[in-house]
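WARN  no MSA supplied for this record, continuing single-sequence
INFO  ligand: zinc ion
INFO  echoing inputs
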Amino acid sequence: MRAMRQFLSDIADFFLPRTCHLCGCHLRDSEKTFCIRCIETLPRSLYHLMPLNPMERRFAGIVPFVRATGHFIYSRNSELASAVHDMKYRKFPSVGKRLGEIVGEELNMAGFFSGADSIASVPMHWWKEARRGYNQTDYIAAGISEATGLPVLDVLEASRSHKTQTAMTLEQRQANLAGSFRVKDPSAIEGKGLVIVDDVCTTGATLRTLAAEIATAVPTARLYLLSLAVTV
Ligand SMILES: [Zn+2]
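INFO  complex generated
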């Protein structure tokens, strides 16, 4: 049976070779989306190993949280930037899922999720999601869920659409985001540890606005702020 499965996988590989999304090399059976070498060379922040890390300093005293981290370092024109671009704009959400699995595995080993009960991704307004076809943070959250066993909850929603924020300052972003998010099922997270997942944290405005909204709606929820990548 096993030999048969290997045989079929070899045939599939012959007609549709599996290649690394970043370097294009041929993937081994044990590899998924990226080769081991590309995974190893993605720069990690290792913030989760630092007490009051730079990401936590962005939120300390502003919104309540248990822990915060951004796992990969995001810089322009990097391999990671190209993977994030493909995940967001070129219809490769599977890249987000795979990166989410890696983040989940590495943080889980370090005990980052200790006390967490579930995961929720930063919601996207339905109109934007309909145009893009998917919300990339859902895929990152699914990858983290797969690696940690924590369930993904559909408890948050983007209650109104907002302008694209690329060229805005932190203050402009916060004004732009005010009233954007809503907790649609507060009872599901009362007294629980909730991991909020974002893609790239630049000014922190998105996580800050969302965490503030959750803290107001459900003061007993314990929040873990996690972005796939962070700018330094
Ligand atoms: Zn590669």
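The chain has a mean pLDDT of 91.
INFO  checksum written, moving to next record
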